[in-house]
Amino acid sequence: MAKWTAKHEAPEPLEGPVVATVTGGTILWFALFLVQLPFYGWFADRGQLWWVWTCAAGGFLGLIGIWYVRGREAALKRHAAEQAKQAEQAEQNPGPEA
Length: 98
What we know:
Blueprint: H1 18-36, H2 40-45, H3 49-92
Helix pairs in contact: 1-3
């Protein structure tokens, strides 16, 4: 069996408002949890409590996601600032020309 090889390069990852997206999703999970709480007995009677707890778990995992993407975004900004600083220093102090 031959090994599969890609025929083209992978596209660059899409960047967008990641923190806002994860925050919005987390708010949505918590809102769904709160909306379902008054119907807890209804879900329990039908053996569907997992609906309620899935929304709670989604909200709490979203909090971890917010922490993660905020750290990622800060690291990307630090890296871009370092790259800009190095490029500026390279312009000001050109090395020996060969």
